[in-house]
Design brief:
alpha/beta; six-stranded mixed beta sheet; five-stranded parallel beta sheet
Length: 774
Amino acid sequence: MSERKQPSEYFVFEAQASGQDPKTETVVFAAGRAADADHLVERLRNHHLTHAPPERVILMGSDESVLLSLAGDSALRETLPSVTRYVDPPDIEPVAFDRSGTLTSLVAEAATVSAVRRQKIMRCGLMTIFDKRQGMLTAGPGYHYVNPSRRHTKAFIRTGNVLLHSAEVAFIAMGLLEWCPAGTRRIFTDTASINAVGYALADLCMHFDPHHARPTIDSFSSYGGLDRFDFDESESFCVVSASTSGNLEARLTSTGLLPADRIATLFYCGPALDGRRILCDITEREGVDDGHALIESYASEGDCKLCRQGSATIHISGDQFLPADPEVDEILISQDHEPTWLAPLLTDLLGTGAVRCNTAIVGDAARFREISIDLSKIADDAHGSPLAARIQKRLLSATPVALERVVHLNDASSKALAETVARHYARHNESASDGLVISELVAREDPTSLVPAGGAIMVVAGVVSTGRALLSVSQFLRSVEDLGHLSYLIGVGRVATPRDWRRLRENLTFGTDPGEYPLLAVRLCHLPDDSGPDASPWRTEERYWETTRDDIAHSSEQAAAALDQRRDILNGVVEADRDGLTDQLFLPAVRQGGGFDSTGRDGRLELRKGFVFWRSVARQHHADPETSATQSEVYLTIAAVLHELRQSHPDGRALVQHEHNRTVLGPSNFARFNDGVIQASLLRAARQSELDYSASRKLSAEMQDIVLRFAKRCETKEGEAFPEFLLALARGRLRLHAMHEHEVAQALMETRGRLPPLLAALVERFERRLDWRL
């Protein structure tokens, strides 16, 4: 068997459609110079598991013969339909680049790729690398960076972070070819962390001119090395890793060290600069929706607003641009952190039973969503919910007059909303609704069922998370000949960020002209992307019980029985007619006398009046929402607030996690939010890193006090969430400093005799986890 090539041979990314070229494209950059169709098929298959199928595949590389061989490979063309999920394979366009970085399409009559199209491809690839590899370091609340230039900034670009795979590095180097002069003998970098780009650039230069001597690559260590490095401007080329001001290039040119036409910057985020050679400007500007916000920057400490506000500094220094030791900060949640969309959404959903947790993803029974919204019972106005009334009002303007078909995604919410659209249309047009509604599956199997006849087709999705399924249906429908006009209706768009929503909207509505296909979302909200395999905390809990059952069974039969009852709840055995959980999300409280009902029927964690994040809910619809609150509704609220805190905000409040600055949920949050159901929601919705107090003795000691106080009072209202704290400790989701963890374990072991059997077994698991870690 031949040795399998490494995954870095190809760099695969999406190039968004543009006005001049409306086709969606998948670009495959071939870093190697040997054709391997089997490996390419595997890379495309993995890529299109998480991306919408393209209308064209671009094969890009430096060797025309390799590209033509790949494009003409029969195995690739035969496999491409299944890989890209198209009945017919997308077009394959080989595109070669030369020594100057010019792109040439090799199809039919070879033609130079336009500057606009090249710029689009390069930007999409570079932004994919930068964002995927997290090139932007953002300081958490209370901190900011001092750059090597001595400028004070809220964020710092560390290009070395993104240089992980050779194909991606080669793509970056390819972008520099147009500026790197022929005959270059020396390549300078401002940091050795990007020397890989220099070597890749030298490799490309040698490929196109094998008789020329390989250029040398040296780092001058940024500002600190300007006076010590022996610059030789003849036959040299300088690569600057990143900039937020352009000052380093200005210093190089103003002091006569290097001419401006021999300096290029890889990534730039700052005020617009003219006449500079910038490979990728990542700044968010007018007409650019994939950029990053302008980095807040100050020339010195005296000018720094952040310093005046008491923000501490993290100094960036050395050739590798390494910040100082990691800092751990805490954040305290308040009503100011409530996202603006939350109250309107809760007004629509509270009391309807629509909010559920741990629901199986349609078509993939092995994966479960953290939060789902089921519109199947409230989409129609007969229910009388605020959301149903809102849907009816929006349909007055959204329903096409010449509606021929309503095509819905393959789930209950989408079907219910589609039937609501059909009834609305029938009422207002005095016609029957029979035959209007068909599922996407029927449409795919029999496109003639769409009955075009020049009429309109409305594509309906109940709830959209990533938008991949909707994009797939859209692309299928656009491929059907003579189809009438398309429009889209989404009940609830629950994408992760506003940027994700803008991209989805633009992809769906773009036709010959922008906005050609109308789209309406009745409600829009932003929640974490929970489509991954470990997105549901309850699915990971069930797996924990599965792997520990034998061990817990040795503790006692009662503990094993309680564990099995809990697993029945998580696996849908209890109340199996329900899709997912509205209640019983959390381990119940310990009853007076040490009793414990693992089914949650007794000891259910309930919400008391005055929930701060429900104060803005419309009281004409919900006079007393806490009384009938479900645990899933409380959990959605907390998950929304935490997700909002993870986003970048102008005032710096954010839950950020990276190697140099971490923010955790302040232990005081578990005191100020004293309802057990809220505390349990925080423990479940928080990421593990947000509950990791091991690097801060101060915060760890505070959390230790809280855990021990709740353990001591676990039979009272104050300590009703103690079982959830214990489960988080046993699983390692909640971490303290090693000293404090052992002290907590010792205290719990001394009192486990008064705990119910399952909780006593969890105490033993916690202590054993600490022993294993040692």
